[in-house]
Amino acid sequence: MAPALAWLTALMMVPCALVLALAFFRRGIYGGIEYTFTLENFGLVLDPLYAGIFLNSARIAGTATLIAVVIGYAAAYAIAAAPRRWQPVFLFFAVLPFWSNYLIRTYAWIVLLNREGLITQLLRWFGYTGEPPSMLYTEGAVIAGLVYNYLPFVILACYAPLSRLNPELAEASRDLGASAMTTFRRVILPLTVPGIAAGAVFVFVLSIGNFVTPALLGGGRFQMIGNLVYDQFLTANDWPFGAALAMALIAIMLLVLMAQALAADRAAGRIAEAKADG
Amino acid sequence: MTATTLRHRSLKTSSIALGLAMALSAPAAAADLVISNWDGYMAPDAMAAFKAATGVSGEVVVHATNEEIMGKLVASGGKGYDVVFVSSPFAEVLNKLGLIETIDHAKVPNLANLYPEAANLSHDVGNKFSVPYTWGTTGLCYRSDLVKTEPASWNDLLAPSDALKGKTTMLATDRWLLAAGQLAKGYSVNETDPAKLAEVKDLLISAKKTLLAYDDTTFYSKLVSGEALMVQAWDGWCNYGIAENPQIKYTIPKEGSDLWVDTMVVMKASANKDAAFQFINFMLDAKNHAWAAQNIDYKVPNKPAMESLPADFLAKFPNMAMPVAELVKFEQLRDVGDAQRDYSKIVSEIKAAQ
């Protein structure tokens, strides 16, 4: 316990406390920090502009999460339904992209989507001569990048409960006259909620704080909260405000994680019930 | 210029490889001088040549952005660095913070090589605390083969013709992004009046709707590939595009440009100021400064260096031949102090606008 606690204190709590402390000071006129106490940075976070950016980030992250969960769950379901000996192979391919760098994978999307990119060239090869569609530097491109990058988390998180699911539960449901759809909706889905929640939280938390994907695939035209924090630290030299924004972001993430823990607890109760019944 | 960007991504790989080889073969320990510069912003063998000429050894560390080196200098009080390359508004701030040393002109005789205009820059008249290294303009870089009429105004970028919609980019760094709007409106590039800034903001929000992207680092390659047809660009970076495709041209809109200046400063905390001045003097040597002009494609404020540039080089990059008298007509970006927070907020509003 002690080493873990020391680790947490040194690498997690102390840095967070330092950032939190920073948020209570003023920006010096030349970009340094003036050590006078103020709450104005937190007031500024609530400014409609910045609150709007928070909401917009949550919307983009939420959309990415929804899409990733649908695709990821379907993929996990298919893997779990595949013959046992093939499952590790499929899982291996699902996580294979993690072997290369996040930035490189994101640049690959630029190569694909840009107006003179591979998709356009492919269209031309098929004889398309019109104006190429604008795909890069759109909100769709940002969401695609987020979904693509975080999808493996959902697949892994959903695969775990799906593969452990006792097939007799589904059989029993069918024997008792439930349709395949009802079986899925009333039996399988509720028992795999913890996996879905864990995967969804991964995608949401990583997406809402992301700044690389909106910068590269959004062409700087979509400001997410991560970009705003980055700008405060690295271009505006307004560390106190950047710290206040970062703290607000951490607070949101904590709320989401707590909601997930709650959902997982309740689902664990359901699973225990199902086991007791079985 | 390039306050927040990585410089010279395009610099020939050979020089990078050479730099790497040098870094590996010459351990950093026990150098007399520590110099911080953007990557690839001076000759890869500059330190070896400097040592051969003076016997003083130096180590070069790189910073990617002005803000990055500012953070380090403010945090350490400038300790650990002797000579630092920064853009002029940042030199101004360092001076106001008392972190940089007065330039001892007696120890930098090559200051005589500078154009008289370069000794009279508004951020530091008389080169009291900074020595200009490169200077230039921010204008429009475009594909002359694909853009029908030569752009003449910032409004050609901010309210482009239908054929250009979705095919333009603007710089993402706040000061230059705002400068495009400020110049289009006929305001100073250091304007701080909130009402005027609000007009600039509205103009730039409407421009955003026709923009492909905000781009500080790859705009010239977007021109080369044809993804973009007209971009807001620093002259030196437009030259990287011109080098790859001669159909790319650079023009300064009729409303003008800012005058950006990158400078060398000596830290007050330096323990080796004489050697630091020696280094600056070395960089101002006509031959060494000409290397910079010819290899990083930026104008340098050094008269004999500029006069030594070959005619075919100037023909290839016409903006390198811009007369100094025209260049210094433009207003420099200055430190705007407290208004910087308004600037960042406006830029956030522009970038968050749908």
TrEMBL record, chain A:
UniProt record similarity statement: Belongs to the binding-protein-dependent transport system permease family. CysTW subfamily.
UniProt cross-references to PROSITE patterns, sorted A to Z: ABC_TM1
Protein name: Spermidine Putrescine ABC transporter permease component potB (TC_3.A.1.11.1)
Main location, first listed in the record: membrane
Compartmental location: Cell membrane
Domain ABC transmembrane type-1, residue spans: 54-262
PANTHER family: INNER MEMBRANE ABC TRANSPORTER PERMEASE PROTEIN YDCU-RELATED, INNER MEMBRANE ABC TRANSPORTER PERMEASE PROTEIN YDCU-RELATED-RELATED
Keywords: Cell membrane, Membrane, Transmembrane, Transmembrane helix, Transport
Gene3D superfamilies assigned: MetI-like (1.10.3720.10)
Protein's membrane topology: Multi-pass membrane protein
InterPro entries with a match to the protein in the record: MetI-like, MetI-like_sf
Transmembrane segments: 6-25, 37-55, 61-82, 89-110, 141-162, 183-208, 239-263
Domain of life: Bacteria
UniProtKB/TrEMBL annotation, chain B:
Protein origin, superkingdom: Bacteria
Keyword hit for NADP: no
A Pfam family recorded for this sequence: SBP_bac_8
InterPro entries noted in UniProt: SBP, Sperm_putr-bd
Principal cellular location given in the protein's record: periplasm
Keyword tags: Periplasm, Signal, Transport
CDD domains per the UniProt record, alphabetical: PBP2_PotD_PotF_like (cd13590)
SUPFAM superfamilies: Periplasmic binding protein-like II (SSF53850)
Signal sequence extent: 1-30
Location of the protein in the cell: Periplasm
PANTHER family: SPERMIDINE/PUTRESCINE-BINDING PERIPLASMIC PROTEIN, SPERMIDINE_PUTRESCINE-BINDING PERIPLASMIC PROTEIN
UniProt protein name: ABC transporter, periplasmic spermidine putrescine-binding protein potD (TC_3.A.1.11.1)
Natural source organism: Mesorhizobium escarrei
